[in-house]
């Protein structure tokens, strides 16, 4: 039976709620575009760590690469080319436009996760 990490699941729910609140109520030029993109990498990390107990040291790097791939999909307009630009769910998940600053935000999020991993290693003696 799969064992769920309550700590990471709670973190996932909290970050998801923050992301939704940012999306619904924050219409500025800093928090919504940048903090939201930083948090999305951390959200994916906590979601996956909720179900994957084994630590993978390079996991923040994998998430950063995944986020960059999503940006490349936006840059190449693949969602539009396959006719899904009108699909609100797909457009929301994949994003709508390429922005190099998004990649910087993903890097910041991944760096925060690397820092978390290093802190955890020192704390647990691994």
Describe this structure in words.
With 126 residues, the protein is mostly helical. It has one domain (6-124). Helix content is 75%, strand content 0%. It has 6 helices and no strands. The chain has helices spanning 6-25, 31-51, 59-75, 78-81, 88-94, 100-124. It starts with 5 loop residues before the first helix and ends with a helix. 17% of the residues are buried. The model has no long low-confidence stretch (mean pLDDT 90).
Keywords:
75% helix, globular, mainly alpha, 126 residues, 6 helices
Can you describe this structure in just a few lines?
The protein is mainly α and 126 residues long. It has helices at 6-25, 31-51, 59-75, 78-81, 88-94, 100-124.
Task: Spell out the blueprint of helices and strands.
Elements: H1 6-25, H2 31-51, H3 59-75, H4 78-81, H5 88-94, H6 100-124
Helix pairs in contact: 1-2, 2-6, 3-6
Number of strands: 0
Overall shape: it is globular
Question: Kindly state the mean pLDDT as a whole number?
Answer: 90
- Alpha-carbon distance between the two ends: 26 Å
Q: Count of DSSP helices?
A: 6
Number of domains: 1
- Helicity range: over 70%
Largest sheet: none
């Amino acid at each position: 039976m799969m064992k769920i990490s309550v700590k990471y699941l709670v973190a996932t729910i909290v970050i998801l709620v923050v992301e939704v609140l940012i999306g619904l109520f924050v219409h500025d030029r800093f928090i919504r575009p940048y903090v939201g993109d930083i948090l999305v990498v951390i959200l994916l990390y906590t979601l996956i760590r909720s179900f994957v107990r084994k630590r993978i040291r390079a996991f923040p790097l994998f998430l950063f690469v995944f986020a960059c791939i999503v940006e490349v999909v936006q840059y190449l307009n693949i969602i539009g080319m396959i006719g899904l630009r009108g699909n609100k769910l797909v457009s929301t998940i994949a994003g709508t436009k390429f922005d190099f600053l998004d990649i910087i935000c993903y890097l910041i999020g991944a760096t925060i996760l690397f820092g978390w991993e290093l802190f955890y290693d020192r704390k647990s003696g691994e």
